[in-house]
Amino acid sequence: MFKLIAAALLFALPVAADTVSGYPTVVDGDTIHFADDKVRLAGMDAPERHQMCGDEACGVIATTTLANLIGNDVVTCLLNGGQTYDRIAGTCSTARVTDLGGAMVVAGYAMDEPRYQPDYTALAAHAERDNRGMWANPVQAGWEWRAAQIISPPHDADCDIKGNISASGRIYHVPGSRHYDRTSINSSERWFCSIAEAEAAGWRAPR
């Protein structure tokens, strides 16, 4: 009986998470490379290096912002096991910054990535409200910008309502609305000629 209890306790113990530590190279606003590991900061998404936010090169600034947060400090990343492309997701810190991903969101050069943890929704909302960093300009989510680089379906000039698909569902954006300029349309999405057409197809207005 004692052996059975001991075995049960052994298997109930949590497995220690993997970590990687060292002096990384900053690739962009959400990716760092160690000697043998490529780490994607979990739960957030920074602009791509070539991405613009209005007239601001926000992708370049995001990369510089992350480099400045790290400085010459050792970075330690707690890897969560998730993987995007060839990068392992992790929550990273230095002696001065307890959460580099969160600090990027606070600085206004990264968005909350709603599909993954940690949850930076509140931090991103505060940064947007205060127009910090990239939020001072028209800005597009990195995942939408990347999708738009593949192909944007053609549309009639009179059919200028954008039917976007995101983590929030199927949303339509009319010209002049808050998120219209920052929203791009890829091949899996569509344009509409009227609000009635969009709603009949299952799209809704932003909340």
From TrEMBL:
Pfam families: SNase. Residues 26-137 form the TNase-like domain. The keyword Hydrolase applies. Residues 1-17 form the signal peptide. The keyword Endoplasmic reticulum does not apply. One of its GO terms (molecular function) is endonuclease activity. Keywords: Endonuclease, Hydrolase, Nuclease, Signal. This is Endonuclease YncB, thermonuclease family. It comes from Pontivivens marinum.
